[in-house]
Amino acid sequence: MLMVPLETAFGWSRTQISLAVSVNVLLYGFTAPFAAALMERFGIRRVVMAALREMRTDRTATELLVATDDGRALYATLGWTVISPFVTAEIPPA
Description:
single chain; 94 residues
């Protein structure tokens, strides 16, 4: 479903896309038990907020964080900044 748009937009082959997705799933599989143990011990709120704080300190991270006004105020306390208050994306039908 996403292969053709990724191939077209970036010029990647299906092999490259499949390898990236496979590595992603593998890493999630390895880290999931540890994340679950941390969440069980410290609570989901503390673990998620710590992860957001760590992501913010990584200057190479390209994640997009979408939040309500209250959420934005909370994330601002962790060092996140607003680049654009509103973002709209459209995927044209094939």
